[in-house]
Amino acid sequence: MLLSALLMSVGINSCLCVLFFILYSVLRKQPRNYEVFLPRRLAAGTSKRRRNKVARYIPSIKWIWKSWRPSEKELMESSGLDGVVFMRMITFSLKVFLFAGIIGVFVLLPVNCFGDQLTVIDYADWSANSLDLFSVANLKIRSPWLWVHFGAIYLLTAFVCCLLYFEFRYIALKRIEHFHSSKPQPHQFTILVRNIPSSDGSSVSDTVDRFFEENHLSTYLSHVVIHRTSKLRSVVDQAKKLYKQVKHKKPVKKTPMRFFSRKDTPEGHYERVLQELEQNIRLGQAEVSAPGKEVRAAFVSFKSRYGAATALHMPQSINPTYWLTEPAPEPHDVHWPFFSASFMQKWLAKILVVFACLLLTILFLVPVVLVQGLTNLAALEFMFPFLTFILSMKVVSQIITGYLPSLILQTSLKVVPPIMEFLSSIQGHICHSDIQKSACNKVIWFTIWNVFFATVFSGSAFYKLSVILDPKEIPVKLAVAVPAQASFFIAYVVTTGWTDTLTELFRVVPFMVSYIKRSFEPSDDNEFVVPPMRYHRDTPRVLFFGLLGITYFFLAPLILPFILLYFCLAYIIYRNQFMNVYAPKFDTAGLFWPMIHYTMIFSLVLMHAIAIGLFALKKMELATYLLVPLPVCTLLFNEFCRKRFMPIFTSYPAEVLTKRDKEDRNDPKMPEFYNNLVSAYQDPALLPLRFSGSRNDSLTSPLLSSPEV
Amino acid sequence: MLLSALLMSVGINSCLCVLFFILYSVLRKQPRNYEVFLPRRLAAGTSKRRRNKVARYIPSIKWIWKSWRPSEKELMESSGLDGVVFMRMITFSLKVFLFAGIIGVFVLLPVNCFGDQLTVIDYADWSANSLDLFSVANLKIRSPWLWVHFGAIYLLTAFVCCLLYFEFRYIALKRIEHFHSSKPQPHQFTILVRNIPSSDGSSVSDTVDRFFEENHLSTYLSHVVIHRTSKLRSVVDQAKKLYKQVKHKKPVKKTPMRFFSRKDTPEGHYERVLQELEQNIRLGQAEVSAPGKEVRAAFVSFKSRYGAATALHMPQSINPTYWLTEPAPEPHDVHWPFFSASFMQKWLAKILVVFACLLLTILFLVPVVLVQGLTNLAALEFMFPFLTFILSMKVVSQIITGYLPSLILQTSLKVVPPIMEFLSSIQGHICHSDIQKSACNKVIWFTIWNVFFATVFSGSAFYKLSVILDPKEIPVKLAVAVPAQASFFIAYVVTTGWTDTLTELFRVVPFMVSYIKRSFEPSDDNEFVVPPMRYHRDTPRVLFFGLLGITYFFLAPLILPFILLYFCLAYIIYRNQFMNVYAPKFDTAGLFWPMIHYTMIFSLVLMHAIAIGLFALKKMELATYLLVPLPVCTLLFNEFCRKRFMPIFTSYPAEVLTKRDKEDRNDPKMPEFYNNLVSAYQDPALLPLRFSGSRNDSLTSPLLSSPEV
Hints:
Shape of chain A: globular
Largest sheet of chain A: 4 strands, antiparallel
Oligomer: homodimer
Helix content of chain A: 55-70%
């Protein structure tokens, strides 16, 4: 790609940035857009709908200041530790790329520029210069200047590792602190038990009672057996929907009620329909609750956190596939539909999902190959000769090489997070947070593999396969292929990166949906949903730019300022969104951090592999050998971090649990808490519903709040 | 190798077998050999020293019958579950190779023989026929007979997997049963805690007390802090040795006592020396026990097994590298010297040991290359032309190709188990059984790698390295190289395998040592040691023959009868040794089984890889593709077994623990047991010693019994 094409991209996107910023500052002030841009504040009642007509149309940048201001403590209160972890990922990247950017722009870039491998830069005609002149490709074989790059790699690795260590420690401590400051919560006292063996003659409930009274007598409190309620749930959902419509006095569709007498008053009529539904639900509940219809799983609650942890950690049964324990999720976080899976089913589902992911990865090569065709205009002209005329127009060719490729890639990447979320949901996870964590992991690796590696290796599946099977050659092949794609990824950062954050700010899809909805039916003040943050969509995206920055750090330092700008944008915009848009849906207390840590380590090792290959290509034998200890040490460092911090992220230690238990002993609210605990894990579909008569109680009771709200 | 050379080998070794059997039956009846051949029965007092001179010199085979007879229960009582597991490994192999042998000899061998790839067998001159005529190499490319091999591979895999499943289940149940029937033992109530953090001002003992009283109040009983006693231990050992000499009224070497008055009676003199030593030890003990000199580790005992398990499984500290818990070994199994290692030291030691093992593997290639030179006479003649005359003699060449190679390999393999045991001992394991387990694992992989792969790939280190780095080629390379070594491994089974078991029976080294000892000093009835079984030496050996049998099952079925014979010999001889020679030194309750299981799975997958390569070479595309699911399924089966059975081998489940605890509640002996528990884990070097005065007490007290006895 030529410098002019890059400048074109930067130009288009800078303009878009300014445009969107201005548009946003105006649009967010329009009362009817509050539901899209400020749903959180609207729900909290802190944002009054202003009627001042003039100020509403004047663009301002006050919102930037507002999203800059809040401290981490305030963020913690409003978005939980997960929000803090997400923001710390961005500040961590900012620190890394500030450091890398200074080295890259002020040391590596000049060194690269004054190399003489390629043609000397013609300062009169910048636009004609290839971006390769700014990359390490411009240094000759055995050039002593390469030692500068060598030093820079060691320096950056040391810096990132130090930062990773302190960050991991900080978040681990925050996690403990968060636990200490939390109120007693049902999931702290509860575990989920699966694969309860069937004992002849007695129900699941009796079996659970007998087992835990025998083996954990001193701490066992109560349990809730899980039922197969998928069918019932659909009836309940239907009833709720109907009730909502009735409540808002909307015309109910006539079809199901045509058979009832038409002479009723509308109220009397709805009342009767609801009674009918209620009756149906009650029958369904009785049927589902009947003995023999249970799933062989139960939520078991204990008198103390220590007791729950004891039962959680200890192997329970002589047959280790029975009485499997896992920590219970928060009650509103439970993913009810997938409890029926047995040990074997879960295991097979996992294997199937792995295969599905592999298949998706291979299918996804189609758009990647398409993108690669676009960056290579000559190949495109060769394949489609009739395009020659259009492609010969300078503007068209620059737009095509500079903008279109990443746009296509970007659009097809949009579908990946929902697919991965679906795959994770059928894998047998018991709660929404686990599903998101698992999906996040999948999306990270999918992005790295399908965007980075597939692009680098020009999208040939067979080529990729041969590389896996020949690991010795990997560094050299990477060192040949990765620098060749530098210009593509610089364009990718400028286009995808920048527009991504702006789309996030602008909430394009919800905005359009809300606009269309409003055009068809009048707005209803009470009926809007505060959306949850989709970590599995945004975390991999941010991490991928970190990976790009680290791998291209010494290859093409020109990428660094753009990446730095991306993280600045992301910092402002995500803070704004956490404050105004997203409400936390669950609280994993920072469980996303280890994933971020591992991805960073992977980025470092990938950089080392490329560096080793590059130094081998440049015939710097000594430097090549001196680089080998670096990935080894990085992996050992990672192993150390894993041993040092990971246990805190899997479960809370005895020390912390007993301390909290002791504090509770003097709490006068505990008896009430224990009373609620017994029923906290009731399946919402099995709770008594009462629509008829009073219209405003049951639906708003806390136990009925569906996880989507 | 020619058939005649093989027959030569078989001849020599059959003669040796008969000779050794006869010799053994005579030698074991000689009273002065009882200490070598029947130490166990001698120690138990069940073998009286017969004086009947005539019967002593008549060979008999009664001992075979005697070692055949005992049931598994009797074996369990005399040698523990570990002995049973070892014997079950042999019976398992017998079953596998009986099945494989029937298929191999009656189906595969005829199919191979009547192939026509190589020259037709000249029935008149058997001795001139190459062994390759009996192998799969004799079948033509695309021969339909290869489908017989295909079926045989599937059949054997299914058979072995079924057997493995039932065996794993059987041993897991035995383990639980063994626990149920065991008396209350200190290690069931105790855990080892390492990396106790230093809190300023208080001793380790106080820190432990405070921590466990705070976090495990209801179950905590007591603790024993560990001290750094390596120096003290050497003094104690010296004293014990001296005391033993005195006790047996042997002349004590004069050197250390020359400075004392010479006019004493011998008794008075020794008494004084012992008093001196006692004084020294007491001073040393006081010094070591002083506060601030402790190792930051302690044995912590609990009131119940359930309590100990709770503390064992639960993460303890906010910093996961502190308060590390692991199950305590049996008191007499503790390996005292290596308690000083910290978390980091242990980790680094582990990494270092891995590197040491790698180095050893590379160094070991020297004898392997030498062996390979011998099987290849032409190469040898080329390298050392002066040998041509000797090598041209038929007998010499047959001995060299048939017998010498495996003898050299064998001898150099003898040094591996002790080296591996040493490496494992510095790795930071806390007990002798863990050290043996770890050493056993190392020896298994070392044997497979250095005997199997190094031989197969002709001992070139660089060649081997290139194979790892090119995994796609592995099956084909194996399929070329493995069948080529068939004759070597057949000879290996006949020579090494058979003589190995005979050496085991004959206890060559101890026998010679005892003989030499007796020639120099008159025998002393009370001074013999019942040796422990060295599982890390014998298990890998037996397993390796299993691996050979499985991999060569379809390549060269001629190996199977010899392997079957080997296992028959091993069955008789090891049973005999368990009854008469080895006393159990520790009780891991079957922890060696998982290793055996994994090695079998590895053998199967290796066979599949070779088969895939072979079918690819024979251009059987369909068969090649149809074989690919087999290793995948085998690995999935292994994963299932791991999930299903492994947890039982890592710790006992709550169900079992509470049941035993309940039984104990009514046991009148428990208060006494708790009293002993408090001091069970005292370091023997710190116990009060009293030599002077009474001569027959302290040394025989159970707490002083050193782990070697």
